[in-house]
Design brief:
This protein is an all-alpha fold. It has one domain. It is elongated, with a radius of gyration of 20 Å.
Length: 111
């Protein structure tokens, strides 16, 4: 009975942690200045957050065929999300979207 409680607790903890990571990351996406920074944040949030949520679901499921399928989905997401984000950012750069640069004000005596 206690092993089931530990399994449920760890699974729920992983799911809540993944959801919290995705929520905090989505707030970061709103605050970032340009397309490239937002794309970077979105790919990290998707990859890590969804992988942790799926790991929690796999823990709740136990050692079954379904948890093996979830593990394959985690591997697939871990490999494809960064590649897709890179392709998207590269296409935007080739299309002419410029990365954001901080403009510093001139000091006295600077030209």
């Amino acid at each position: 009975m206690t092993l089931e409680w530990i399994q449920s607790g760890v699974g729920i903890l992983l799911i809540v942690a993944g959801l919290a990571f995705m929520f905090i990351g989505s707030l970061g996406i709103l605050r970032l200045p340009d397309f490239f920074a937002r794309t970077h944040a979105a790919s990290k949030v998707d990859t890590v957050g969804i992988a942790v949520v799926l790991a929690g679901i796999a823990v709740l499921e136990g050692l079954t065929l379904n948890s093996a399928k979830i593990a394959i989905a985690i591997i697939f997401l871990t490999l494809t999300n960064p590649v897709a984000a890179h392709a998207l950012a590269r296409a935007a750069l080739r299309h002419g979207i410029k990365p954001w640069r901080r403009i510093t004000p001139l000091k006295k005596g600077d030209q």
